[in-house]
Amino acid sequence: MRSVKTRGELMAQTKLDLLLERFAQHDRIALARLITLVENRAAQVSSVMERIYAQTGHAYIIGVTGAPGAGKSTLVNRLITKYRSQGKLVAVVAIDPSSPFSGGAVLGDRVRMTDHYNDAGVYIRSLSTRGYHGGLSRAAREIVKLLDAFGFDMIILETVGVGQTELSVMDLADTTLVVTVPEGGDGVQVMKAGLNEIADLFVVNKADRDGADRIKAELELSVHLRPAGGWRPPVVMTQASADVGIDALITQIERHRAYLAEHRDAARESERRTREFMEVLASEIEERTTRALRQGAVNGAQRLIEGVREGTLNPYSAVRKVVEDRRILSALLSSEQERAEQE
């Protein structure tokens, strides 16, 4: 048994310490590298988050979601401009579908919001959906925490789709904007997709087109049919491409922010923290066990996997054996250093 770190482990720890020091000094390259660690699900992510967590909780987070083609990126571009004119530091996390070829985000940073590339007060990062499945919301949450700890005042989360994954990401937002457009019966689609329940504000973008007033009326009716009490989501008409209605939208966002400050919901905050804990715990267990099994570091578990592969053992029996064997379970959940110390 050994209880000291190897030279390689010490070098890795020193490198991480230096990266975090640079991050604390507002080095954007250090920020980008820490975000890359999160995207790659590196083993150091939990340690990083633990160390920066106390610096979080200052940024205001705006979620922007809705069907593709609603003009969300143009709207976000306008929001960035307005908040920068107020002297606020703005970060954007754009969650994109993955390229089937590269695995990276299809839209990417370089084709988005190009008006702001030379502005040191703006940071834009695309996050590909590839490989995350249910873990996408954890990756998004951790990136938001990094941006918050870095010192951004406003963080905008934009999602392309309206699926369950995107809805879970919107849970991170303080204010959620659901963006619709007049054509295609979009108001009905909003209700079908469950967006009606998560919206703090509805935005009818491209409001110069036919049908905008009809969509506005449909959305206002859906708000009217909500149970009495609490925040009533307003419907804001915008033409983001022409910078029309953006000031009114900012005003409504600030109204919602003031409402949240005045009507602080301790039970909701407690529930959010509990959900975060459960999400982190579940994904940490999954990531630790996956790394251990890929490295072939747990002999007992490897034999069980071979049995599953050969068809001599069903996966449920294999999992039961792992759960009942504390030695295997401990090895699966241990870090590489802890496993080495146990040998």
List keywords for this structure.
single chain, 343 residues, alpha/beta, Rossmann fold, 15 helices, 7 strands
State the shape. Answer: globular
Spatial separation of the terminal alpha carbons: 6 Å
Q: Based on the structure given, which CATH architecture of the largest domain is correct?
A: 3-Layer(aba) Sandwich
Total of DSSP H or I helical runs spanning 4+ residues: 15
What kind of assembly state do the chains in view correspond to? single chain
Largest sheet: 7 strands, parallel
Strand content: 5-15%
Give me the CATH fold name of the largest domain.
Answer: Rossmann fold
Content-based structural category: alpha/beta
| Number of DSSP-assigned strands | 7
> Can you give the helix content as a percent range?
40-55%
Order of helices and strands: HHHEHEEHEHEHHEHEHHHHHH
CATH homologous superfamily designation of the largest domain = P-loop containing nucleotide triphosphate hydrolases
Domain count, please report it.
Answer: 3
User: Main sheet: which strands, in order across?
Assistant: 3-2-4-1-5-6-7
